[in-house]
Each structure stands twice: as C-alpha cells, then as structure tokens.
Amino acid sequence: MTDLIQHAHHRGVTTLTLDSPANRNALSAALVAELHDTLDRCGKDDTVRAVVLTHTGNTFCAGADLRDPPDPQALVDLLRRLLELPKPVVARVTGHVRAGGLGLLGACDIAAAGPEATFALTEVRIGVAPAVITLTLRPRTDPRALARYSLTGERFDSAEAARIGLLTTAGADVDDLLEPILDGLRRASPRALAETKHLLTAKVLENFDLDVGELTRISSRLFASADAREGMTAFLERREPGWVL
C-alpha cells in the first residue's frame, strides 16, 4: 500500500484504489505523480493482466486539487500513461466524478459505474475550460453531449454517461457488470491484449500528439486568468463567483 493509492492483486488483475479522502481524491500534484509511477510498475509487471482503477469514499475523483494542482504537463503525462499502458485499464466507479476525473475515465479502456455515480464537467463554473482532458474525452464521447456538458457544467447520471460514451456500461451493481469483463481479460493472451489495445488507441494517441501542445498552453493561460482566480476563490470560500447572474 502506498500513501495515496491502495494496491491489491488477484488472479492477474491489479486494483489501484485512489485513497485521498481529505480532498475527495482530487488530482493533486502528489496523487498524479504517485498514480503515474504505480501505473509504470504495473506496465512492467508480467503478473499483471489488467488494471482496475477505483476509489474509496463517495467520490471517484473531484478533478484538479485547487490547493495543490498538478502541472498541466504532469496531467498530460498521466493521461498518456493510461493510454499507452500495455495492459487494459478498467475504471470502477461508485461515486461522483468531476472535471479532470472525467479525463481519467476517458483514458481508461473500459469504464463501468453504478447508479450512485454522478458526473459533471465543472470547469466553466470556476473560470477555466476542460482543455487537457478533452484529449481523452473527444475520442470517446458524443460531440453534442460533450458540448452541452462542457458549456453548462450540468450534472448527469451514470445512465446518461453510458449513453454518451463516457462509460462502457452502467447498472445496479458495478461488480456484477465487471465480472464478465474481467473474466474475459483473464482468458485473453497477454500479448494479444497489448497488441489489441495498441490498435485501438493508435488514432487516439495520434490526435493526442497533434493537440497536446496547444491545449496545455490554453490550460496554463486560463488557470492564470482573473476569472480563474475569482472562480477558485469562490469555490474555496463556498460562495458564488461574481459573474453569476
């Protein structure tokens, strides 16, 4: 077990559990670095057939930690690590997912959630935009739905998340949903899994490389803006930002 991530292994499947309750598993600089390093080790471990990414508490990931945000490049490197990992990554969600947490889901190969899960792209409500995380969301998600939820910050449920492509599947019991999926991964050849994942993510990574520089610059510029300062301060002070009508 590490400081922010619990680690378990059973029949070829390594489960990484985000365990940072103080900030609702938000993407702090420390969590991003630790998750990246842990995934690196999984990628090199021949006993790991697949990785399940899950969470403690009622929040899968609250997005960027506003008190200790990761460098945009560190978030880019984490998303790339998930996409390039030669093992399938399966998200298991039983809680809330906000902002950058949706980027993690987009980088996973398979994502399942229960009825208690909720989702929202809340960046516009704190004065920024879902810039870097669109690298993984655009290839997976219905464009009309992505436009709506990115522009409004509305919350939606797991059934809607599955309908728009953010999730692979949603249902009453997430472990029941994952049982045949994990069984299928255990029955597959490790080399075939790696090659199939490479085929499936090749175009995603090609577009990732085309857009990453511009999107990283946009993210850095917006996080340094006056709107972002007001939005983040309002969020931390639990009040509405000044622009709300």
Features:
single chain; 245 residues; alpha/beta; 6-stranded mixed sheet; 4-stranded mixed sheet; 9 helices; 17% strand
In brief, what are we looking at here?
It is built from 9 helices and 10 strands. The chain has helices at 29-44, 72-84, 100-107, 134-137, 143-152, 158-163, 174-187, 190-223, 226-236; strands at 5-10, 13-18, 50-55, 59-61, 89-93, 96-98, 110-113, 118-120, 155-157, 169-170. Helix 1 (29-44) runs parallel beside helix 2 (72-84).
Give an overview in words.
The protein is of the alpha/beta class and 245 residues long. The protein has one domain: 2-enoyl-CoA Hydratase, Chain A, domain 1. The chain has nine helices and ten strands. A six-stranded mixed sheet has the order 1-2-3-5-7-10, sandwiched between helices. Strands 4-6-8-9 form a four-stranded mixed sheet. The mean pLDDT is 97.
